[in-house]
Amino acid sequence: MKLQLIMLMGALSVAGCATITRGTNDVLVVNSTPGGAEVKLSNGESCTGTPCTFKLPRKSELNVLIQKPGCKPQQVRVTNRVAGSGGAAMAGNIVFGGIIGAGVDAGTGATQELVPNPVSVTLECKGR
After folding, report:
1. Has residue 108 been placed in a domain?
2. Is the pLDDT of residue 79 over 90?
3. Boundaries of domain holding 59
4. Is 99 helix (H, G, I), strand (E, B) or coil?
């Protein structure tokens, strides 16, 4: 009986609050072919050469502009969706953590993931 109780407690600890288990931020990766393109996010962040990474709130929605001299710029819309592991954490939270924990997870966006991620584009360049 003790072994079963220990196993149940271990399983419940894995199904914890998404805010704690996943965090409220995600890492967005931006790649381009050819590399070395400039990236500008609609939130004001940028990098001078791909590949780039940005730490962003999981519930972000933004535009990503990728450009390089001699190439046609491309823009990609990044949004969010409920992640598979985020949904499982939310379900565990509702069952074991109650409505307050579920509200915290929903409010912080901890159950979300950024899509597409990674952002990968092939730039149309002159002379290629």
Report:
1. yes
2. yes
3. 17-122
4. helix
Higher pLDDT, 12 or 85: 85
86 part of a folded domain:
yes
Is residue 30 domain-resident?
Answer: yes
Q: At 103, give phi and psi (nearest 5°).
A: -65, -40
Query: What pTM does this model have?
Result: 0.69
The structure tokens 């519930």 sit at 59
**pLDDT tens-digit readout, 92-125:** 555 555 554 555 555 565 678 999 999 999 999 9
Encoded tokens for 77: 């819309």
Residue 44 in tokens:
């004001």
Token pair of 59, please?
Answer: 């519930």
- Residues in contact with 46: Cβ distance below 8 Å, sequence separation at least 6, in sequence order: 38, 39, 40
Is the predicted pLDDT of residue 61 greater than 60, yes or no? yes
Looking at the domain assignment, is residue 102 inside a domain?
yes
Q: What is the CATH number of the domain that holds 27?
A: 2.60.40
Q: Which two tokens stand for residue 53?
A: 């990474």
